[in-house]
Design goal:
Blueprint lengths: L14 E2 L8 H7 L5 H6 L5 E11 L16 E10 L2 E11 L18 H6 L5 E2 L3 E5 L4 H8 L8 E10 L2 E9 L8
Antiparallel strand pairs: 1-6, 2-3, 3-4, 4-8, 5-7, 6-7, 7-8
Length: about 180
């Protein structure tokens, strides 16, 4: 069953770290960490796994996503939950324009429940753009998603996103830290 794609790109204000003023240092240290989130999460739990919420191909006219690929004809959108010890800690949404899915990057379309981070961070050509941060205040669509995961909360949830480039081909990864996440403990 197809779920509606979560429009996290336009449902919050994304900004560079210097502009964020109400975020704790602990949360900020997680948000600005440029290493593999998969590896970091694995260090904080006994079992780590990825659950695919959905993966669909769409276009920027049919589905309003980020402005990064507004001219792309087709965009592969992958939504997953990153689980630590059977609890969802992160909701991640990846936008991959069809032009990026050529050569060895075509494998990105078929990783299933494998970690995208493992694929990205093994590439010697990987470059990461600026990390942007967003705050999802109580009542947001992300909070509504948390209710379906039995993770209700009344505080803000934090997210980060950045463009990654593999062989100079872009993709956008957005990661929302859910209430069960280590960053709020």
């Amino acid at each position: 069953m197809l779920n509606q794609l979560l429009n996290i790109a336009s449902s919050a204000t994304w900004q560079e770290a210097e502009s964020v003023d109400n975020c704790s240092q602990k949360v900020l240290s997680w948000l600005l960490d440029e290493s593999s989130l998969t590896k970091k999460l694995e260090q904080h739990c006994q079992s780590f796994n990825v659950e695919v919420r959905q993966q669909v191909t769409t276009n920027s006219e049919a589905t309003p996503l980020s402005v990064h690929f507004s001219d792309a004809q087709q965009i592969l959108v992958r939504e997953v939950f990153l689980y630590c010890d059977q609890r969802a800690h992160v909701f991640a949404q990846t936008e991959i324009p069809s032009q990026t899915l050529s050569d060895s990057q075509q494998a990105l379309a078929n990783i299933g429940s494998e970690s995208l981070g493992r694929f990205l961070f093994q590439s010697t050509s990987l470059k990461r753009g600026t990390i942007e941060i967003a705050e999802f205040k109580s009542g947001s669509l992300i909070h509504q998603l948390c209710h379906t995961l039995d993770q209700s909360c009344d505080h803000s949830l934090w997210a980060r996103r950045s463009l990654f480039y593999i062989e100079n081909k872009p993709l956008l990864v957005s990661e929302v830290f859910l209430p069960a996440s280590e960053i709020y403990q």
